[in-house]
Amino acid sequence: MQINENLGVEYLIYENSALGCLIAIAKPDQKSIKKFWKKFKGKSDVPADAIKGYPLVQDDEQDSLKIDFSVEQEFLIRDLVKFG
């Protein structure tokens, strides 16, 4: 697992409601998420647009969560809920 690979990039935490996990999305990509929800707010037929992010994993040594930069995955925007 790589640590501090992307210094200088701020990440926002989202919960993937379908998978039940937390993911980190780069702050510049948040615009895509906001635009998606603004366009499809209140609609029942939402497309399966995806965005890249990193899962959060449990760090037993520090007893906390950390971003796993070694695994970049795609997540459906419709399943994302801002955490916190």
Concise summary:
The chain has one domain.
Structural class: mainly beta
Strand content bin: 35-45%
Oligomer: single chain
What would the principal axes of the Cα set say about the shape?
elongated
The run of helices and strands is EEHEEEE
Total number of helices: 1
In total, the number of strands is 6
Share in helix: 10-25%
Largest beta-sheet details = 6 strands, antiparallel
The structural domain count equals 1
Kindly report how far apart the N and C termini lie.
25 Å
Mean pLDDT: 88
> Uncertain spans, ≥5 residues at pLDDT below 50?
none
Radius of gyration: 14 Å
Describe what you observe in this structure.
The protein is mainly beta and 84 residues long. It has one domain. It has 1 helix and 6 strands. Strands 1, 2, 3, 4, 5 and 6 form a 6-stranded antiparallel sheet that branches. A hairpin with a 4-residue loop joins β3 and β4. The chain is elongated, with a radius of gyration of 14 Å. The chain starts with 10 loop residues before the first strand and ends with a strand. The relative contact order is 0.30. The model has no long low-confidence stretch (mean pLDDT 88).
What's the layout of helices and strands?
Elements: E1 11-16, E2 21-26, H1 30-40, E3 50-59, E4 64-67, E5 73-76, E6 80-82
Antiparallel strand pairs: 1-2, 1-6, 2-3, 3-4, 3-5
